[in-house]
Amino acid sequence: MQVSDIKKKASEMLLSGEVKRVIGWKKGEFDYDLTPATFESVEELEDFVYDGFCGANLSKYLIKESKKEGKTLVFMKPCDTYSFNQLLKEHRIVRDNVYVVAIDCEGKLDIDKIKSKGIKGILSVKEDGDEVIIDTIYGESKVVKGEVMLEKCLTCKSKEHVAYDESMAQGVENVSLDRFSEVAKLEAMTADERYEFWRGELSKCIRCNACRNVCPACSCVKCVFDNDASGVSAKSNANEFEESMFHIIRAFHVAGRCTDCGECSRVCPQHIPLHLINRKFIKDINTLYGEYQAGADVDSRGPLTNYTTDDLDPSDIFGGNK
Amino acid sequence: MKKISLSNISKLYEVISREYDLYAPIKKAGKVNFAKWTDGEEVVFNAQTVRSPKDMFFPQTMDLYSLKMQGKTVEVIDDRSETAPFVVFGVKPCDCKSFEVLDRVFLAEPVDTYYQNRREAGIIVGLGCSAPSESCMCASFGVDNTEPVADVKSYIVDGEMYLDAITDKGEKLLSLIAGLLVDADSTKVDEQKAKTKEINKKLPLQNLDMTRFTADNLNEIFNEEEWEGLSEACLACGTCTYVCPTCQCYDIRDFKTNDGVKRFRCWDSCMYSDFTKMSAGQPRNTQMQRFRQRFMHKLVYFPANNDGMYSCVGCGRCATKCPISMNIAKVIKKLGGKHND
Ligand code: SF4
Ligand code: SF4
Ligand code: SF4
Ligand code: SF4
What would the DSSP string read from start to end of A226-256? Predict the structure, then answer.
């Protein structure tokens, strides 16, 4: 699967009129600062890119784009299709207005990890097999790809697409790490240690909302935190309690719906490992309600939105009477 | 000019912190931000802080006053915390310039006394740059990254920190630590400055063409079709405004207490849907309009009202932190002038 094939597909569908627009990634000032974009003509596709810096999940943009007149072609990586399914399940996307083309993904790069190696003044970043070659005004650097991949790609849940109209993917071997191993480390801590860990991380939060706004599960038209009538609206964290509360509420609200797409952690300017909160919920849901992967399909009922008589009772965990 | 070996620098922090609250770029949980120095903290000079030092003068939240109701009387309590003198260490030249931008807003009539108090209490130690990055745009905004404008300017060359007082406040600070400093000549610093200037020439965003951003072109730029494309993927998160050293908008909000109200202010962002919302509604209804506000303010409105001074200092934080990699450099290249390739 070549980038030129992807572009060809896009221009063919635009030219034939089958689709009105294409959603993809657009070239930036540097190799690494691609922006999600819509392309409406073959000329605009000149700037279409698909490479190691296409980490951004495009599925959420379909909430808006699928309500426009005409079909939208969207290219999706395997993990993006989980978010897509989940959004469909929640009736956020008009399915008939979308044409999904599945594309392969060999793991995306994290420019912040590259920079945190002290690499500055970057002129270009190129992948060469397992190596990433970075040319800078201070000289050339080479790093092992595994050291500079996005967290979500290091723990990739699957290289298989769970939704598409057409696939251009040829398949890639998944060699990811266990996504629950970091959660297990947190579980092994004492409550005080864990509290310290999260205080350290969450004290950095600037409440910029990047995590919430990028999240495909956060699709409320008006978030409770933005709604003055809710009584809990806030534009900033006034104290430690609010710093934690924002994230705890958010994690509860996406529990059972979060597909573990990893976007929250990817975009956080302070690199707070938000995925660990969500993964703890996923792990618990798996243990308490049986294995469940949000977004794996469009019609199953979610563990927390379904009721069965043998559902778990608080007493099963905390003891005491039913 | 004076100098001190970096191996001895924690002595310097110690002496300063006996007299003042000392803030420095400190690494915690993997990220560098300005924080209060205490013994054992890791001070990092070669990274850009995620949050800018505007926090020191214009914090994200600040209590203004409280109202206490007792029967039919209302007591007004001034909640401002008196600001003791403090020192901010290691401020990069772009960030030093941001205080000048903020001064234009908060020290103009009517003076914002909350900001003024902090500004008077703060002593700023600037740090010259020696390894600027590709996201640096300071030179495009007229900032000389080898000359931090502060109370004291400092440079780090070959394991030594050079310090030079610029203002009276700066003199006072250096006299406090005089015992730790030795006299130095400026040869090595001058060499570093020359080198940095050469590096600037190789950086892609240090020479942006801004010629089109004039008050005369205000309407034309405002009506550009390009705003649609530039803003289409914007998530309205506000990250760009919160990490920006010059973004200055705030909201005043009330927090209901048991017996009254606590009135506080907190940063606001023009990227938010309720920004400047009035009883008649929201004047900017689409994200494109809000996005446009951010850049029009920085590049056109602010300079039109402030003798040509942009309200961007080219620090590049919005460029490195935006989740969709949209930023002021891309806007300038699209709309700034003919010479942006
Ligand atoms: S993206 Fe990071 S800094 Fe911003 S609100 Fe979320 S956790 Fe806080
Ligand atoms: S607009 Fe961007 S580059 Fe300019 S001062 Fe703000 S964060 Fe820095
Ligand atoms: S209007 Fe926007 S760009 Fe200007 S200072 Fe306020 S938040 Fe920043
Ligand atoms: S950081 Fe980027 S996505 Fe977020 S509001 Fe600013 S321009 Fe939009």
Answer: T-GGGS---SS--SHHHHHHHHHHHHHHHTT
Report yes or no: B31 at the A interface, CB cutoff 8 Å: yes
Which residue's CA lies nearest to atom 3 of ligand 1? A205
Residues 6+ apart with CB under 8 A from B305: none
Pocket test for ligand 3, best of B247, B287, B305, B310 (most atoms within 8 A of CB): B247
Closest CA to A260 of A286, A290, A231, A238: A286
For ligand 2, the distance from its centroid to the CA atom of residue B227, given in whole angstroms, is: 18
pTM for the model stands at 0.94
**CA–CA gap between residue B329 and residue B55 (Å, rounded):** 24
Q: How far apart are alpha carbons B253 and A183 in whole angstroms?
A: 38
Q: Whose CA is nearest to atom 4 of ligand 2?
A: B312
Ligand 3: atom nearest CA of B295 is 3
Q: Where are the domains of chain B?
A: 2-202, 215-335
B188 interfacial to chain A (CB closer than 8 Å): no
The beta strands (E) that lie in B100-219 are given as 122-127, 152-157, 160-165, 182-183
| ipTM of the prediction greater than 0.90, yes or no | yes
Phi, psi of B185 (to 5 degrees): -95, 165
Beta bridge partners of B150: none
b/e B308-318 (16+ beta carbons within 10 angstroms → b): ebbbbbbbbbb
Residues 6+ apart with CB under 8 A from A195: none
CB-based contact, B261 to chain A, within 8 Å? no
pLDDT tens sequence across A82-131: 999 999 999 999 999 999 999 999 999 999 999 999 999 999 999 999 99
Among residues B195, B298, B283, B212, the alpha carbon closest in space to that of B247 is found at B298
Where are any strands of DSSP class E within chain B? 2-5, 21-28, 31-36, 61-70, 73-78, 86-91, 122-127, 152-157, 160-165, 182-183, 250-257, 260-267
- Using the Cβ of B323 and the Cβ atoms of chain A, whether some distance falls under 8 Å is answered with yes
**B134 and A30 in contact by Cβ < 8 A?**
yes
pLDDT single digits (tens) B46-64:
999 999 999 999 999 999 9
Provide the H-helix boundaries in B276-323: 287-296, 302-305, 317-321
Residue in chain A nearest B341 by alpha carbon: A29
Cβ neighbors of A158 (< 8 A, separation 6 or more) are A78, A79, A174
Substitution target in B26, B31, B44 with the highest count of A β-carbons within 10 Å is B31
Ligand 2 centroid–CA B314 distance in Å is 5
Q: Does B278 touch chain A (CB under 8 A)?
A: no
